[in-house]
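Let's do one together. I've listed all components of the complex below, 724 residues spread over three lines.
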Amino acid sequence: MKLVALIAVFMTGALLIYGVEDMPRWGDPNSPASSHVSPKYIQEAIEKTATPNMVSAVLADYRGYDTLGETSVIYTAAIACILMLRKKRKGEGE
Amino acid sequence: MLDYIISKYNFWIYVVLMMIGLYAMIGKKNLIKKLIGMNIFQSAMILFYVSIGVKAGATVPILSGHGHGHVHEVIEVAKYLNPLPHVLMLTAIVVSIATTGVALATLILIYRRYNTLEEDEILKIRKDTGV
Amino acid sequence: MAEQFAALIIVVPLISSLLVPVIGWGQKKLCYPWVVAVLVVPLICSLGILNTVLTTGKFSYRLGGWAPPWGIEYAIDHLNAFVLVIVSFISLMVAIHSKKSVEKELSEKTVPFYTLFLLLVTGLLGIVITGDAFNLFVFLEIASLSCYALIAIGEEGAPIAAFNYIIIGTIGACFYLLGVGYLYIATGSLNMADLANILPDLYHSKVILVAFAFFTVGIAIKGGLFPLHTWLPDAYCTAPSAVSSLIAPLMTKVAAYVMIRLMFTVFQPHFSVEIVPVFAILGWLSVFAIFWGGIKALAQTDIKRMLVYVLVAEVGYIVIGVSVANRVGLTGAILHIMNDAVMMTCLFLVVGAILYKTGTREIHQFRHLNKKMPFTMAAFTITALSMCGIPPACGFFSKWYLIQGTIEAGQWVWAAALLCSSLINAVLFFRVIECAYLKPMEPAYAHNAGETHGEILRDEAPFTMLVPIVIMAAGVIFLGIFSGKIISSVIQFAVPASF
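Okay, and this is what the predicted structure of the assembly comes out as:
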């Protein structure tokens, strides 16, 4: 079991390192991640959403739907814990 | 070569962390250790994403001194970090906490039933009771 | 109107799940009618969406009004409109069926159970409808988290199975997220349509290859494809019967949908076929899945465990259809997503009804079940015949397309595997039918089964269980008869045009 785990882990690691080779340098301002979608957030956030903090602007406005999903995840986890851990109280019929 | 390694050191660190987490998840027998491995794994993912957002010489993505009156000022893109990975990771952190919570709740259920969190002991108990 | 349908299909079950505790606080018994009433809405919405897609073609819905690559959009085409109808219809049927078994198995946990039930359906619908790679991850987690909890409250051994599922499922979800991250670092976009535009120039980048590998492994874990299925049998088998009849047909099918979406929409088919040899690997793994699932199923005496192993084999079918990468095979795969979801739901609902009535899942105790529960067993028989691929039941048609697809691709071994698995299914299901219909009473077993030697009284499943079972069994026949029409009006548009 340990051996299988080690093999799987090293295969994953090798794959990840293989992918690193074609990645942009760390902190490169012209990398695709920094130049395709995100400039518009930086330039227009204040105008469109009136929020100086761009992270909040994206979180609550541009990608607000993800945040709705995120709160639903928390709600799901809370209900899940209630479902699993709540014991029937004494004298509570049904 | 050294230059290549240094220029991408964020990736090496995250790969190592991810391998540690993955090994703990698959290889360890103690269920709590598996859960800790899961958290290391998810933290590695978060570090990876946040490091995508870094731009050399840029500052945090919060405009200072820009009120409603100054919207026509030119905003230099290169001066601010990429906000999108941070947003994604806020969501991923919440997901990781929620998963940890649910996993801990199942661990409580398991402990109540078998009085142990060692995988092989639980398997032994289940074998002995014939289930 | 269709745009509103697209928004409502997620929002209505999500908001309603918030209201379940409020309603259950006052009166626990109202939870069930509320959930059933709420689940009618996604069905109507999905039919409306399908109708719009069929008449006007694909459309998108911008959440919050932000333009796509910056905001999140729902991208609806024939493929996801079709899968939405399947998901919403089956979740409604399972919800109707769940009344009695939840009262029996989980009486003190009704309120959180139904809350999570709705959240699970929300998550599944969200995975199918969204056009944003990261948003898909969020909904995947909503569905998975509710799945973990619902499995953990099952019978003896369920918490262990659930914990293993949490660990392995999280690896799957994180691998998916890693794939999204690698795509983002190479393209800077998260929108699926935008990615599909940018990616062709980057097909030889190593980052993209790694992203594709992680997508494939992550989705294969979630879908339970051999050899990553190890969590599946225990988790689905120990779950309460209302839960396993929802997640067993739907989770695997939604994962298969995501696989098709990623491999043929986000990536162009020629990337998935020519640049990476992934389909050869997946196809052979599916062959192993079919044989391994069939052989393990033959060894089981517990009918639910047997069905779970059959499910492992059925995942193999769909993946073979994807792996042959031609038009016929993919048509078969998409058709089989529907047929297998309907057949598996019917079988799991029947098992739930039998468990409720007789308290046993052991096949050798099914003696005289045909007299006790004639309608349930008739439904079981119809579906069993469909699983063996006997026309005009729907199982025949999807298998026909799948086999044609493998022959067209020149993969004779895969075709042989599909044919063999029909034989294995025939043996499997005939064994159950024989026990229920044909075996005379043996004195040695008579007292075990708790039967008297007198006449066997009819003891049919309750009405709320019988109705969905009969509807699903009728569906097996109707979908078979109309499969030509379904293919010509929906599925042929769902297959990517580049084939």
